[in-house]
Design brief:
- This protein is 44% helix and 15% strand.
- With 378 residues, the protein is of the alpha/beta class.
- It has 3 domains: 136 residues, 3-Layer(aba) Sandwich (Rossmann fold), CATH 3.40.50; 146 residues, no CATH class; 70 residues, RNA polymerase sigma factor, region 2, helix turn helix motif (Rna Polymerase Sigma Factor, Chain: A).
- The strands form 2 sheets. It has a 7-stranded parallel β-sheet with strand order 4-3-2-1-5-6-7, sandwiched between helices.
- α5 packs parallel to α9, α12 packs across α14 and α13 crosses α14.
- It is globular and about 55 Å long.
- InterPro entries: DXP_reductoisomerase, DXP_reductoisomerase_C, DXP_reductoisomerase_N, DXPR_C, DXPR_C_sf, NAD(P)-bd_dom_sf.
- It catalyses: 2-C-methyl-D-erythritol 4-phosphate + NADP(+) = 1-deoxy-D-xylulose 5-phosphate + NADPH + H(+).
Length: 378
């Protein structure tokens, strides 16, 4: 494999830090050509000193450092254009990751996609651009990376079901009547993964899994009725597929984000990992149906996937606003689903093909959600 030039978006987050670990471990295979962080200037500058050839972008605030040459949301797009990257790892959280995904593909750059919102908001557009510009579209979520590998070289007509697993988060065994009293710190305490604040809350509510259902529908072009979610507390089985003969095929590994990132960076090759592999001897694997009364965000996601059009856009926008309000202690934990459900009661039957139209619906969903949050927090 020739050396690949890698650009990391969201370099100070979990995806970014793990991607840097892969690059450090494989200096003969990768050149880091650029880094973007939102607010964490100190980490960005530290990484810049370690990788002096990397272009740097701080998008969330102005920097006085001469090392940082790009700023703002437009700076991210310019960074992508100037980077001459072979692959962009998009680890930006939320809808703000959409335009960078589009820009990377328009520049003919392979996209390692951890920003699930790109597919939720604009799956058809993203796939069209990847095909038009002959770019690889490589999922970095552990579940979708697993499905990508499981489905590779298999004819679609023999697949009857895609199964995404979920740890169940910190409240899998909590009584429903106790949900109103859940605190921010309790919701941030994920039992398996180390993640940012927003994604940790999404994992607690299972909105994260809901977004992944929509992402799988878009990415692999399966009807939502062929997609299932199972609670798997051990987080060893990342996804499964069921074929028409009722056989199950699974991807099983340690819950370590470095694996799907490494698979994406080396694609189409596969390399041995330098860390400990999973030994199944003595391990227990449990699976349960999710309780949709405890996790209404998952139920709402399936409904949005069935409705299509702009419903997934509204689901994501409302959830982002509700999570921010909960983290700022403006609303209780249980109101996250209420805000999202209220927003989805509006008309989302519009069909969007362009990014600007998609972002208009995204903004509308946020305005509706914010108004409801204000009313709830009076």
């Amino acid at each position: 494999m020739k050396m690949k030039k890698v650009l990391i978006l969201g370099s100070s987050g979990s995806i970014g830090r793990n991607t840097l670990d892969i690059i450090r471990s494989n200096p003969e295979d990768f050149i880091l050509c650029g880094l973007q962080a939102h607010l964490n200037e100190s980490i960005l500058l530290e990484d810049g000193r370690e990788f002096p050839k990397a272009l740097l972008c701080l998008s969330g605030k102005k920097s006085t450092s001469d090392q940082i040459t790009y700023s703002g949301s437009k700076g991210i797009l310019q960074l992508i254009e100037d980077s001459n990257a072979d692959i962009v790892v998009n680890g930006i959280v939320g809808a703000s990751g959409l335009k960078p995904s589009i820009k990377a593909l328009e520049c003919g750059i392979d996209l390692a996609l951890a920003n699930k919102e790109s597919m939720v908001l604009a799956g058809s557009l993203i796939k069209h651009l990847a095909s038009l510009h002959n770019c690889a579209l490589l999922p970095v979520d552990s579940e979708h990376s697993a499905l990508f590998l499981l489905l590779e070289n298999k004819k679609k007509e023999i697949i009857s079901e895609l199964i995404l697993t979920a740890s169940g988060g910190p409240f899998r065994n909590k009584k429903l009547e106790e949900f109103d009293s859940i605190t921010v710190n309790e919701a941030l305490a994920h039992p398996t993964w180390s993640m940012g604040r927003k994604i940790s809350i999404d994992s607690a509510t299972m909105a994260n899994k809901g977004l992944e259902v929509i992402e799988a529908q878009q990415l692999f072009d399966f009807h939502v009725d062929c997609i299932k979610v199972l609670i798997h507390p051990q987080s060893y089985v990342h996804s499964l597929i069921r074929t028409k003969d009722m056989a199950l095929y699974a991807q099983i590994s340690e819950p370590d984000m470095r694996l799907p990132i490494q698979d994406a960076l080396f694609y189409p090759e596969m390399r041995k990992v330098p860390w400990t592999y999973l030994d199944l001897a003595g391990k227990t694997l449990e699976f349960q149906e999710p309780d949709l009364k405890k996790f209404p965000m998952l139920k709402l996601a399936f409904e949005c996937a069935r409705q299509g059009h702009a419903s997934p856009i509204a689901y994501n926008g409302a959830n982002e606003m509700a999570v921010e309000a909960f983290l700022n202690e403006r609303i209780p934990y249980s109101a996250i689903a209420a805000v999202t459900e209220h927003t989805l009661e509006h008309d989302w039957s519009q069909k969007h093909e362009q990014a600007d139209e998609i972002l208009e619906s995204d903004q509308r969903s946020r305005e509706i959600a914010e108004q409801f949050i204000r009313e709830k927090s009076k």
